[in-house]
Amino acid sequence: MLNIVSAVSGFLSALGCAVSSGMSILDLWNAGSAPAIPPAALGLAASGTPVIPFCIEKTFADAATGDTAIYNAAAPYAFRVIGFEVENHGANGVNANSVQLCAAAAGASPISDAVSTNGLADQALARATTIDYTVGAIALAGSLYLRRTRAGGVLSGVARIWCVRTA
Fold this sequence. Notes:
With 167 residues, this protein is mostly beta strands. The protein has two helices and nine strands, in the order H-H-E-E-E-E-E-E-E-E-E. The strands form two sheets. Strands 1, 3, 6, 7 and 9 form a five-stranded antiparallel sheet that branches. A four-stranded antiparallel sheet has the order 2-8-4-5, with no helix packed on it. The two termini are 28 Å apart.
């Protein structure tokens, strides 16, 4: 573990970041003050703002049409959704099944388009083609739901929501 922390600290230092000794990467993340990597070190223009994406992974079981709550008025920090994909589990067949990311229950305030799982093989991926960035800005203590629409066959899998912290 020490070698990993040393390697990460060395990497951040090489990029010109101020890293305090004794502070873990998790401490920096939880405090919301991860070291700012100079844009030039990442090949970005001076006006670029580097961000570190993270992934929320949520497994959902086969069930009738309904919601799977990821955060029900309980988001631990503010973040913006930047991507959404579904890994299909099981034999879906040709059914009008889909999964959609929403900021409210019952399919209200959709963030993504409905991701179809029609005819997908087991472990195949399907991705959202649109993300509404205005609805996808989740506030501290905000909500995030998966809306499952099951018309037949099996609708189960893993949803992966790619995000960046905004506060």
